[in-house]
Amino acid sequence: MIDRDEVLHVARLARLRVSDEEVERLAPELSKILGHVETMNELDLDGVEPTSHVVDLTNVLGDDAPRPSLPRDKALEQAPDAADGGFRVPAAASTRLGRVRADSHPGAG
Amino acid sequence: MSADPLGMTAAAQAELIASGEASGEEVFDFWRERAAGDELGAYLWVAEDNAGGSLPPVAVKDLFCVEGVPSGAGSRILRGYRPPYTATSVGNLQAAGAQVLGKTNQDEFAMGSSNENSGYRPVQNPWDRTRVPGGSSGGSAAAVAAGTAPWAIGTDTGGSIRQPASLCGIVGMKPTYGAISRYGMIAFASSLDQCGPLTRDVTDAAILLSHLESRDPCDSTSLGIPDGVTLPSAERLDGLRFGVWGLEEEGLEPGVADAVTATLAKVEELGGTLEEVDLPHARYGIAAYYVIAPAEASANLARYDGVRFGPRSDANGDLTSMYERTRHDGFGDEVKRRIMIGTYALSSGYYEAYYGTAQKVRTRIAQDFVSAFERVDFVVTPTSPTVAFELGARTADPLAMYLSDYFTVPMPLAGIPAISIPCGLSEGLPVGFQIAGPAFSETRILDAAHALERAIGFDGVPVR
After folding, report:
1. Helices in B53-98 by DSSP H: which ranges?
2. Does residue A83 belong to the interface with chain B, where contact is any CB pair within 8 Å?
3. Is A54 on the interface with B (CB under 8 A)?
4. Which of A3, A13, A15, A53 to mutate to test the interface with B (most CBs of B within 10 A)?
5. Is the pLDDT of residue B334 over 90?
């Protein structure tokens, strides 16, 4: 069973704000879904290799040829707050002297 | 243009254009008007400029990126997003002469089986407007069934092409994982997601697939279909062995079982043989899927944080608060549920118990199919356990909604291709018949589906 505290903990991990009403709803819903998921435990899976990818792939070497990437202005075009050639975000932390800016480095991305 | 494209397959319309009886622009205009008149909620955007083309235009699920065109996976967290590039699959179609007719409605981030999880509005089923079209590619399926698109593409992660095709009485195919590039497809669960066609008939599906498949340097998991796609011509099923699965399952509606049983009789009439196959682990497919898909989704959807695209909430708070409120305001209930399940399953102390176990079940399901294909050429099942259900019927019970995909989830877990073709009606609503085959057996599946389609003679026009 997933309780209220666990919902809040997981929501924090997922960077998801949840309202009180959502917490009340999610706890039983997630418990029910995970209850079904746990029917997997009926199976004897000792020694079974896990599958992370379904198709047998071997590495293919490509030419290491440079090609143009997305121009910076195009990459920034859809951002809610682009500035100085980067993505501007709110302060990540504050100090006694004031907020510390956390602008993305203009060269990143 | 003297001919009426509405009553024609896309292949027949392509012949009209090739013979000069109609221009690509006339055909495009015809469909643009049809799409603009959509009353089912199937479209989120319809093309403004006439792009013409040698093939009829294609309706594209909202989650495909198309340069400069709103592409938001049916989610409010991508409201207004116009990507700076086009998905390889869509680019392949454009290069082949099929332009983008519009963007179709869908369950948000392809999470759902009814299209009721759209961030914008639900879609109605053209056979009965009080019922769902299925999902998540519900807009694409409804548009083709209602005659507001000549053909469409969607994506299938656990049944999102085949189940809506079944509920809307059209053809839908999920190809082998890797057959079509995922580049530019807004990701849900990367080890499962695959693009595919939704069409009026099997030949149209084969034509779209032949243009969609490719090996793409931008998607290192893409392989194309090694032998390509041959257009189907079979009229008989002589010598082919069909393994039947699922007719005894709990929750299968009697009317659906009857229609599928009648189709199995047609398989035998055409020279095919039937035997029951056991897929002992397939019944655990939903359990494994609802760990693997949410786990991958929780990672894929981490990018929606109000920094690079989409709207931002609490712009004046601190960084964490901005992230958390942007995601709270932008994601719908089902997406939040899946992110929560996935994050929980991947969190410290639970990883092995959930994700590790689910990956082992996935291996078992794939092995079940390998064993089955040693004895039979195809595995056949009902596509959906029920016909289209009423809008609202399953929204209060997520697990009941998940079980809608009982018959379609095992194939993507095993990475194998499967098609759904309409095989009859139950209570006046379409029933789908699913044919699955080994990896990269698309041409053989299409051939078998073609022969059966002729024998069934399904009348695909909804009673309106």
Report:
1. 88-96
2. no
3. yes
4. A15
5. yes
Whether B266 sits among the annotated catalytic residues: the reply is no
Which domains, from first to last, does chain B contain? Answer: 5-280+366-456 (3.90.1300.10), 282-365 (no CATH)
pLDDT of residue A95: 59
pLDDT at B137 over 70: yes
Q: Point out the residues of chain A with pLDDT beneath 50.
A: 103-109
Give the pLDDT score at B173: 98
B103 a catalytic residue: no
Q: Check A89 against B439: CB less than 8 A apart.
A: no
Mean pLDDT over the full length of chain B: 96
Picking from A62, A58, A66, the residue whose alpha carbon sits closest to that of residue B223 is A58
Amino acid residing at B317: G
| Calpha distance B356→B153 (Å, rounded) | 33
- Asked if the interface predicted TM-score (ipTM) of this complex is over 0.85, the answer is yes
The highest-level CATH class for domain A4-42 is: mainly alpha
**Taking CB atoms and an 8 Å limit, are B315 and A80 in contact across chains?**
yes
Q: How many Cβ atoms sit within 10 Å of the Cβ of residue A99?
A: 13
- pLDDT per residue as tens digits for the range B46-81: 999 888 999 999 999 999 999 999 999 999 999 999
Question: Any CB–CB contact under 8 A between A50 and chain B?
Answer: yes
A21 vs B: CB within 8 A: no
**In chain A, where the domains are located:** 4-42, 71-104
CA A61 to chain B, closest CA, distance in angstroms equals 11
CA distance B223 to B215: 5
Q: Is B160 a catalytic residue?
A: yes
Helices (H), B223-318: 254-269, 285-300
From the list B322, B364, B398, the residue facing A89 with the nearest CB is B322
User: Which residues, in sequence order, are CB contacts of B417 under 8 Å at separation 6+?
Assistant: B173, B174, B175, B176, B179, B411, B436, B437, B439, B440, B441, B442, B445
pLDDT digits (tens, 9 = 90+) for B416-447: 999 999 999 999 999 999 999 999 999 999 99
Distance between CA atoms of B312 and A76, rounded to whole angstroms? 15
Q: What is the pLDDT of residue A52?
A: 86
Interchain contact A102–B (C-beta under 8 A): yes
Indicate the residue type of B281.
H
Question: A with B: how many residue pairs have Cβ under 8 Å apart?
Answer: 174
- Tell me how far the alpha carbon of residue B214 is from its chain's centroid: 18
